User: Fold these one by one.
Assistant:
Number 1:
Amino acid sequence: MARSALTISAATFTATAALLLTACGGGGDDSSSEDIKGADTGAGSSSPSATASAAAGAGRPEITLPSSFRLTFENWTADDPAQQAVLNDGKEQLRAGYAAIIADNPDSEALAFYDTEAGLSQDREWIKSYTDKGLTVIGELPVFAAEATLFAKETKAQLRYCTDESEARTKNRKTGKVEANPPGTDPKVAYTVTMQKNDQGVWQAVSTESKRGGCS
C-alpha cells in the first residue's frame, strides 16, 4: 500500500491489502532534505511566542484508540522544543489515521485536523484500502526511531520514524478472520513524512513515503 502514491499494480494491491499493515507510503527514493516534495512554499514564519500561543489554542481533537490495538511510541522525544512539536503532532496524525480505520471512517475530522488537503487525500485512500474490504486492525504496533528535521524558518519539516508490524494484524469485521503479513515479509517499515505548520501552529502531514525493510 502507498499512503502517498499507489505504486504497485492493482492486482498486487488487491492481493496484499488485506495483509500488509503499512501505513501506506510510496517506496521510491528518499527525498533530499533540501527539497521536500509536496510542501507548500507559501507559508510564512512567526515568532516563537506567537506560534506557541496559536498552537495552544488550536483546539486539537481528542483521539481514542481501543485496547485491541496498541500504538506505542518509543523514545518519541527531542531536546529541541521545535522538533518536539513536530513529533507531537506527527504522533497524533498517525493515531488519527489508525483511529479512522478502526472507526470505519475515512472522513475522520481528527485526521483532517492533522493533514493538509493533499495529505488528507492520500490518507483517505490508505484508510479506504482497509474499510472498503471490511477490515480493521488489532494487535500492537511499536513506532520508534523518530527524528524531526526543520526547514524554511521552521515552517516545514521532515519526520522520520520506523514501525514494527510483528505483532500487528488485520481483522475482518464480519467473519472475524485475523491475518498477519505473509511469511518472509520484513516487519519493519521506515517512514518519511513531509509536514507543514499551519497558521494555528499545528504541524500537518503533506505527504508520506514508506520503505519496507528500510529500518536498520
Note: The domain at 70-216 is CATH 3.10.450.50 (Nuclear Transport Factor 2; Chain: A,).
Number 2:
Amino acid sequence: MQPDQQPPPDPESEVPEADPESVARTILLDALTGRARSRSELADLLARKNVPTEIGERLLDRFTEVGLVDDAQFAHAWVQGRQQAKGLARRALAQELRRKGVDDEVAREALDTLEPDEEEAAARRLVQRKLRSLRGVDDQAAIRRLAGMLARRGYPSSLTFRVVREELAAAGRDSEGLDEPTL
C-alpha cells in the first residue's frame, strides 16, 4: 500500500448503532434464558446496562403482559426449589424473596404453599445428614452445631430444638440439657 492511500473500509466497523429497545429486549431474553427472575431483578439489570428507564419499564410491562415475567410464579418456583435444594425454612425464604424484590404479599402467598410437615421433614434431613459428620464430636458440641445450622437456615427455635432432640435420640446420642429456650 502506498503511503497516501487509505485502507479499505472495514464493514464491521460501519455497523449502525443498535436500537436501545432491541438491546434491552436482548438483555431481558438472555437473562430469562437461564432461570426465571423477578421483575425487580430485571429492572436492576437493565439499569446496570444503562437502558433508559422508560424503555425498560415499557419492555417489562410487555414481558409481564405476555407471561415472561411473573413475580407470583417466580416466587412459587423459588420457594419450592430453594426449600428442596437447600432445606431453607419460611423465614430464610422470605428474606431471599425480599432481596429479589418480590412484593411481601406475593411472597406470603408463595410461602403459604409450604406445608409445615415439609418444613419439618427438611429440617430432619439436614440434621440427619449433618449428624453423620459429627460422629467424633461430643454431644454438647453436636447440639450447638446442629441448632446453629438450622437457625442459619431460618428454622424457628421450637422446631429446631425438637428436631435436634429427636434425631439425637434416634441416633443413640445424648440430648440431655437440650431444652427449648424460655422467654
Note: The mean pLDDT is 87.
